[in-house]
Design goal:
Radius of gyration: 27 Å
Strand order of the largest sheet: 2-1-3-6-4-5
CATH superfamily of the largest domain: Ribosomal protein L4/L1
Structural class: alpha/beta
CATH class of the largest domain: Alpha Beta
CATH topology of the largest domain: Ribosomal Protein L4, Chain: A
Largest sheet: 6 strands, mixed
Length: 212
């Protein structure tokens, strides 16, 4: 079991913590990243694209010309897809793009993502995130101390002061443990985890390993 230093927001060492091998030391499986991230992004798609089919287009009640004797093909409505302004054939309709990924696969991918960041020494454990007030300058002091340009901050529960202080800073995302996901871990170069949140992550992901 690996041991890492625990820092305060000023990057002063205040202790140490153990990283469970079952969560932060597993084999990194790239194919799981592709599958799970694709599922996450597909679920975010609005799926509101739509075209009007023949029955939805206004007008076209009158037969454009008589059935026979004109030398032209018969036609019953100008709303037919062959006419300008007519309905679309097999056009896109509102739908969900989401698809399901097995829960064990999602959790295995998350363990792989956390293991990658831990292996790159890009995972930092902070004793606690506590800001005097919800001001961006206070959060920037933390970023400057650690030299972070891109960081995912994981809290045991959502802290409004931390969330408000960080929301206008590019490259920074704040999530509670239950919102931790593969996409956000991979798109940030660093992961800063509150020590209390670390225990919750290990408890959530290692339970499945024990039962699996």
């Amino acid at each position: 079991m690996a041991t890492v230093d625990v820092y305060n927001l000023a990057k002063e060492r205040v202790g140490s913590a153990e990283l469970a091998e079952a969560v932060f030391g597993v084999e990194v499986k790239e194919h799981l990243f592709h599958l799970v991230v694709r599922a996450q992004l597909a679920a975010r798609r609005a799926g509101t694209h739509a075209t009007k089919q023949r029955a939805m287009v206004a007008g076209g009640g009158k037969k454009p010309w008589r059935q026979k004797g004109t030398g032209r093909a018969r036609a019953g409505s100008t709303r037919s897809p062959i006419f300008r302004g007519g309905g679309a054939v097999f056009g896109p309709q509102p739908r969900s793009h989401a698809f399901q990924v097995n829960k064990k696969v999602r959790r295995a991918a998350l363990r792989s993502a956390l293991s990658r960041r831990a292996g790159e020494s890009a995972l930092v454990v902070v004793d606690r995130f506590s800001l005097p007030e919800a001001r961006t300058r206070h959060f920037r002091t933390f970023l400057k101390a650690f030299g972070f340009q891109s960081v995912l901050v994981v809290l045991p529960t959502m802290d409004e002061a931390v969330s408000l202080a960080a929301r206008n800073i590019p490259g920074v995302t704040v999530l509670p443990v239950e919102g931790l996901n593969v996409y956000d871990v991979l798109r940030h170069k660093n992961v800063a985890v509150a020590q209390e949140a670390l225990s919750a992550i290990v408890g959530r992901l290692s339970t499945e390993v024990a039962n699996g």
